[in-house]
């Protein structure tokens, strides 16, 4: 067993089932410890309705049942624990749980209503993406249909020139190693330039630039890690994402925005668009990981 | 399922494996120490919602007891306090989201327990529709004050517009409640502070107008206003009291906030005492000043005028405050809005408990997995309250008035049962200490007896077609019909459920028990 710990924020609905299935699949592939956490609203935040010990107890019992029920869907090979935690907000509770368990990944479900197989960020995931200092993955709707046996078939790291790329690469290597999956380095440079530039100039500079970035990234890889490289091209991010091939068992890593405070996540516009388009789960990595 | 300790059923094997971080619960869940003295007072005042309560109840109370409203307010507090003591003991011993339903079932068995739950749900649904109705009036009043066109306030009288807007309010409150959206504590402090301040200004202005001789019907304040024996007859006294039960309804929550109040053990008691002192002073101040300003005659602004009695602030804010009347509209609007939100919680939680224990379909026990609220029960309460309001708006000549009177009756009904449940549940421990003698026997017993007397007196008197607002169907008072329809519907549904779900009614789910 590796010493990787994954926290999954579980809710007893489809989004929760998606998160649980994805977490289970990754944990199984990475031989990671899975901490299944339900975050209950803390009555303390309530300024209007007096706390009710009876209802509180009812919720606790109900949540225990939900967790016990959820644990039946976990693979026999996955080491897991079930937890209830209270927090003023869901995101805050999950980040606290990730710290408590020393987790290196938080898994949550997407809000309903996304196009088939694609993530739509809900308010909860959004808050998490803006506040977490631990990598976060949003399980796209339908993740529960992917069997755990599929494992992680490839890890794709989207590298750019921005700060955060180091942490991103590091996380991608850890993940690829743990899951024994091949690594793919993907340059987003050509599609990650500001709007309004001359398209031909963009095409020229960006392709050259992309090569450099990928080369640099490949050289940064430790010995024994091989990676394929690819450059995303297309008129828009949507086009670029569609033009690339994706495994259904793939995991994609992107760095958080340069607007993010150091060691916190913040989804940049490129990443946000990718999240909408990607048919596979996307992990958002803070600019500097907490441990390093 | 017989348990030695009804408050803590054992965990099932399946759920025992869950680490629930007990340190986390004491820290976060039912956080000991989350609510300070001021927080507890704010919750107490916002649950009573004095601005809303008074505008709805002052008129009907004046119509029963005339100038003796202050006496009735002081007197009405007594049964409420006595019952609240029993409530607190039960809540301490058997905390359960079903409150009156669960406690009465434990003490008296499934049938009475079911009816107590029904009474609670009916009362809260009545108040929900009344709250939304008041909010509609004040919304149009506020708009008319802002744009300076008094005709807009009159739009609220159009039943179709009124019902549609009311349903929109209901929809908003349901969404907030379902999604468990919270106002921050700070905002809540401001809202409550604003509400209290406006009520003080309102009364102060009324008294100043009286002193300046500009009052509508200046009535000199007399000591007899505080004398309950000056009320003409017992029926009027009972009717007035059952209304004043309503104005203190909600205050009892401060007494039950024992676990989560911060600071010393004395905090909950002090919070309850202080909030009730604030509330009683406010009520006395407003009733005295408005009676003194407008009198109890039936002139245009007289509190005895049936046309304004269902919503007196609506009529009096303008004459008293002039251009500042908008403050009253805002205070009542915010007061109704917070109250709408906090009131939604109790029928939903009671229905949830009834579903959980098999007294209603299992669906009622559903908790929203995302918001951790009783989702299904919340929606059902909202739909019933909306339909009820829509029907009443067309049936009754004076929907707000009649619902308030019927509400007082329902509160007496289920609070009365709750009080007796406390007495009976603690029957083996009555004489264990002086404290237990007072809090589990004497106080709830006297409170329960007073409430039952009020309930039956109101029920009998309300058969008179002239009772309350004077709405009648077939020569029988509408309030009586309303009360009977509500209670008998409860009985019919109970029998239907007993056939479909016999386990609960055989006492197999919640057994009778007593404290020992």
Summarize the structure.
The complex is a heterodimer of chains A (292) and B (516). By secondary structure, chain A is of the alpha/beta class.
Account of the protein in words:
The complex is a heterodimer of chains A (292) and B (516). Chain A is α/β, with parallel strands linked by helices. Chain A folds into 2 domains: 5-145, HUPs (Rossmann fold); 152-285, HUPs (Rossmann fold, 3-Layer(aba) Sandwich), CATH 3.40.50. Chain A contains 8 helices and 10 strands. In chain A, strands 3-2-1-4-5-10-9-6-7-8 form a 10-stranded mixed beta sheet, sandwiched between helices. In chain A, α2 links the parallel β2 (33-41) and β3 (79-87). The longest helix of chain A is centred in the last third of the chain and has 22 residues, at 199-220. Chain A is globular. Residues 114-119 of chain A have low confidence and may be disordered. By secondary structure, chain B is mostly helical. Chain B has a single domain (34-505), classed as Amino acid/polyamine transporter I (Up-down Bundle), CATH 1.20.1740. Chain B has 20 helices and 2 strands. Chain B has helices at 13-16, 22-27, 37-48, 50-65, 69-93, 100-108, 110-147, 151-155, 159-178, 185-211, 234-248, 252-256, 267-294, 312-321, 325-356, 375-395, 399-425, 434-461, 478-500, 502-505; strands at residues 472-473, 476-477. Chain B has a two-stranded antiparallel ribbon with strand order 1-2. In chain B, α4 (50-65) crosses α15 (325-356), α10 (185-211) runs parallel beside α13 and α15 (325-356) packs across α16. Chain B is globular. The chains are: A alpha/beta (292), B mainly alpha (516). Chains A and B meet through α2 and β3 of A and α2, α3, α10, α12 and α15 of B.
């Amino acid at each position: 067993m590796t010493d990787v710990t994954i926290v999954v924020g579980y809710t007893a609905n489809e989004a929760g089932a998606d998160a649980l299935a994805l977490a289970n699949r990754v944990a199984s592939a990475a031989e990671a410890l899975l901490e299944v956490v339900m975050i209950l609203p803390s009555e303390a935040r309530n300024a209007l309705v007096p706390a009710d010990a009876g209802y509180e107890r009812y919720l606790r019992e109900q949540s225990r049942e939900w967790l016990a029920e959820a644990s039946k869907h976990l693979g026999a090979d996955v080491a897991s624990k079930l937890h209830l935690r209270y927090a003023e907000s869901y995101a805050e509770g999950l980040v606290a749980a990730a710290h408590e368990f020393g987790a290196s990944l938080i898994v949550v479900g997407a809000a309903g209503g996304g196009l088939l197989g694609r993530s739509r960020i809900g308010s909860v995931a959004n808050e998490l993406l803006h506040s977490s200092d631990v990598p976060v993955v949003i399980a796209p709707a339908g993740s529960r249909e992917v069997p755990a046996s599929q494992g992680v078939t490839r890890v794709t790291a989207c590298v750019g020139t921005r700060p955060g790329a180091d942490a991103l690469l590091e996380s991608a290597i850890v993940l690829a190693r743990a899951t024994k999956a091949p690594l793919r380095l993907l340059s987003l440079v050509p599609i990650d330039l500001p709007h309004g530039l001359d398209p031909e100039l963009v095409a020229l500079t960006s392709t050259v630039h992309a090569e450099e970035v990928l080369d640099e990234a490949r050289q940064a890889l430790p010995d024994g890690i091989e990676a394929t490289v690819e450059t995303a091209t297309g008129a828009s991010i949507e086009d670029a994402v569609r033009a690339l091939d994706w495994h259904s068992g793939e995991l994609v890593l992107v760095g958080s925005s340069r607007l993010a405070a150091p060691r916190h996540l913040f989804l940049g516009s490129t990443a946000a668009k990718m999240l909408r388009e990607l048919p596979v789960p996307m992990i958002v990595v803070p600019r500097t990981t907490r441990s390093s | 399922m017989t348990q030695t300790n009804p408050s803590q059923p054992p965990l099932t094997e399946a759920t025992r494996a869950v680490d629930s971080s007990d340190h986390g619960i004491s820290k976060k869940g039912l956080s000991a120490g989350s609510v300070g003295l001021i927080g507890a007072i704010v919750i107490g005042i916002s649950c009573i919602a004095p601005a809303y309560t008074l505008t709805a109840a002052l008129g009907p109370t004046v119509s029963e007891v005339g100038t003796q409203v202050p006496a009735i307010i002081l007197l009405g507090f007594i049964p409420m306090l006595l019952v609240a003591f029993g409530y607190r003991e039960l809540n301490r011993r058997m905390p359960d989201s079903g409150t009156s339903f669960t406690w009465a079932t434990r003490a008296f068995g499934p049938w009475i327990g079911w009816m107590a739950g029904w009474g609670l749900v009916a009362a809260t649904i009545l108040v929900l529709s009344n709250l939304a109705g008041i909010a509609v009036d004040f919304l149009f009043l506020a708009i008319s004050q802002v744009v300076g066109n008094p005709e807009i306030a009159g739009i609220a009288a159009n039943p179709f517009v009124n019902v549609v807007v009311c349903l929109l309010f209901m929809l908003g409150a349901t969404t907030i409640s379902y999604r468990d959206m919270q106002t921050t504590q700070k905002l809540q402090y401001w809202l409550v502070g604003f509400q209290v301040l406006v009520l003080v200004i309102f009364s102060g202005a009324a008294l100043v107008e009286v002193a300046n001789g500009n009052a509508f019907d200046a009535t000199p304040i007399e000591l007899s206003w505080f004398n309950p024996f000056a009320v003409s007859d017992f029926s009027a006294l009972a009717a007035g009291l059952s209304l004043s039960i309503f104005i203190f309804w909600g205050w009892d929550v401060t007494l039950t906030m024992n676990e989560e109040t911060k600071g010393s053990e004395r905090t909950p008691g002090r919070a309850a005492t202080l909030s009730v002192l604030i509330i009683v002073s406010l009520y006395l101040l407003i009733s005295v000043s408005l009676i003194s300003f407008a009198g109890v005659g039936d002139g245009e602004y007289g509190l005895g005028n049936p046309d304004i009695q269902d919503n007196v602030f609506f009529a009096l804010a303008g004459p008293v405050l002039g251009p500042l009347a908008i403050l009253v509209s805002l205070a009542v609007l915010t007061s109704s809005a917070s109250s709408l939100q906090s009131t939604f919680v109790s029928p939903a939680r009671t229905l949830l408990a009834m579903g959980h224990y098999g007294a209603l379909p299992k669906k009622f026990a559903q908790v929203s997995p995302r918001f951790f609220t009783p989702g299904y029960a919340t929606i059902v309460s909202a739909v019933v309250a909306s339909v009820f309001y829509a029907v009443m708006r067309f049936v009754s000549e004076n929907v707000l008035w009649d619902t308030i009177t019927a509400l007082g009756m329902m509160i007496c009904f289920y609070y009365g049962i709750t009080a007796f449940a406390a007495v009976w549940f603690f029957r083996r421990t009555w004489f264990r200490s002086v404290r237990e003698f007072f809090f589990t026997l004497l106080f709830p017993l006297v409170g329960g007896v007073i409430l039952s007397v009020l309930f039956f007196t109101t029920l009998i008197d309300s058969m008179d077609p002239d009772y309350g607002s004077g709405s009648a169907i077939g020569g029988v008072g509408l309030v009586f019909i309303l009360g009977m329809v509500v209670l008998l519907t409860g009985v019919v549904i109970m029998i239907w459920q007993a056939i479909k779900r016999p386990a609960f009614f055989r006492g197999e789910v919640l057994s009778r028990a007593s404290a020992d």
